[in-house]
Amino acid sequence: MRLNEKQLKIRQQAFALTLCTIVFIAVYNFCTWYASSLDDVPSFTFDFEKSIPFMPLSIIPYMASGLFFCVVFFSCKNKNQLKILTWRMIFATVTAGIFFITVPLRFSFAKPEVPHVILGLPFSFLEAFDSPFNQSPSLHIAFAFIFWSVFKGLTKWRIFLMVWLILLGVSTLTTYQHHLIDILTGAILAHITFIIIPYRKHDPEYRNFRVANYYFLSGWILISAALLLSKYIGAEGFILLLPALVTIITGYYHQKSNPQKIQ
User: Fold this and answer.
1) Over the stretch 21-65, which tens digit does the pLDDT of each residue have?
2) At 210, is the secondary structure helix, strand, or coil?
3) SS3 assignment for 147-161
4) In whole angstroms, what is the distance from residue 50 CA to residue 34 CA?
5) Which of 16, 54, 71, 238 is 20 to 30 A (C-alpha) from 151?
């Protein structure tokens, strides 16, 4: 019996989800095994990170990443969008895995006890199945940007999903799962992914998105450089935050003309 167009699309979406899940599990678990076999895995933090509060409630948006990982494939509107999403997810996962092995880092803050019974369950799950390794670049952050490249084209739930993804990004810090360097490198990885695997590469209507990604990438690199310089040479390094702000604003205005198109 021949499948109709809708059934074929669902089958393709399910296949893409399965493929990306297998790649993620294989890469993540191998990198965890490798890092755990090392005698010493360093960590990297900025001094001001010690003031970041631990917020147990933020585990809710943090754990939503797994749901978004599944939903995003079924939110694609056509085969080309699904293909680009699949390649982006695989590229980001494999690239992050290379860094997990070549530059392994671990989370270094002691995580406070969570007395709340319900909120304590997901933290117990993380303690049992997650690891303090595979930190930089943060795949939670890279995936959040990739999710948004699809979700921004939706007509319903668009604002809700945007806010939730922002909360997800913040939660990587407030659940004590990632350090700031992981978030910065995750954002850089996402925009490298957009540049290497563009959507509708030869469509002039999407040129502004391609240009915007170069500005966003430059902005994240400048923010990272500003924080690194401030750590090692002093407050003078923060001067780079000004050009970082300018490049990100410029990127925003480049893509503003078609806000609901995917990147």
Assistant:
1) 999 999 999 999 999 899 889 999 998 999 999 998 899 999 889
2) helix
3) HHHHHCCCCCCHHHH
4) 28
5) 54
